[in-house]
Amino acid sequence: MIKYSDIDKHINAFVFELDNVLYPEKDYLYQVYYLFAGFLEYTELLDAQVLVKLMVQTHEEQGADAVFNVVQERFKLDEKYRFNFAHLLINAQVPLKLLLYPEMLSMLQEIVVDRKQIFIVTNGNPQQQLNKIKHADWQELEKYLTCYFAEEIVAKPEPDMVDMLIKKHNLQRREIVMIGASETDQLCAQACGIDYIDAHKNY
């Protein structure tokens, strides 16, 4: 992963995605699966352990979007449970704090010590993303974060939210770097005319 010491000293503002950049998104989703499995065990008398195993396996093999459909088909679930699952995905009170990648926690701490600005510009359902932020273990760094939910304007890779951030905070494009882990973020940075760093690439 990228280290703070690898970044040009003229950078004064850091724009991060949230999922799979600051923390592993599966740490949130797998807890949602656990909660949903417990709910189905209570309402449908299904085996929660079997459900969790199936949901995690489906997530790993087919992606998060396939999870409910596979469970529904396997256990002949009523369609009404789709609403329950969607509600949990957005609003779950997950039992365990979401831990940041250690390298990212160190980077955030060093950025704060250097009195530089930290922004999170994240795609996805704004309510869900806010819920993830609330459940993350920021180690008291949360007061230094300024968060924007791109879909309140238009999702990345469209540059609109980052352009708004630049104007609102009187930033120069040459002093900003976007740190992401997807082609979406890379394209957004290009569209904004700012530097981009892949969080997981070795430098």
Provide keyphrases for this structure.
about 200 residues; single chain; about 45% helix; 7 strands; five-stranded parallel sheet; alpha/beta; two-stranded parallel sheet
Strand content: 5-15%
Structural class: alpha/beta
Mean pLDDT score: 96
What is the spatial order of strands in the main beta sheet? 5-3-1-6-7
Task: Characterize the biggest β-sheet.
Answer: 5 strands, parallel
Strand elements, count: 7
Radius of gyration: 19 Å
Percent in helix: 40-55%
Our count of helices gives 8
**Shape summary:** elongated
Distance between the termini: 8 Å
Sketch the topology as an H/E string, one letter per element: EHHHHEHEHEEHEHE
Low-confidence stretches: none
Write a short abstract of this structure.
By secondary structure, the protein is α/β, with parallel strands linked by helices.
Set out the fold topology.
Layout: E1 13-16, H1 26-44, H2 48-62, H3 67-75, H4 80-91, E2 98-99, H5 102-113, E3 117-122, H6 126-135, E4 136-137, E5 145-149, H7 160-168, E6 176-180, H8 183-192, E7 195-198
Parallel strand pairs: 1-3, 1-6, 2-4, 3-5, 6-7
Helix pairs in contact: 1-2, 1-4, 2-3
Could you explain how this protein is built, in words?
It contains 8 helices and 7 strands; from the N terminus they run βααααβαβαββαβαβ. α1 packs antiparallel against α2, α1 runs antiparallel to α4 and α2 packs across α3. It starts with 12 loop residues before the first strand and ends in a 5-residue tail after the last strand. The strands form 2 sheets. The chain has a 5-stranded parallel β-sheet, with helices on both faces. Strands 2-4 form a two-stranded parallel ribbon. The chain is 47% helix and 14% strand. β6, α8 and β7 form a beta-alpha-beta unit. The protein is of the alpha/beta class and 203 residues long. The chain is elongated and about 60 Å long.
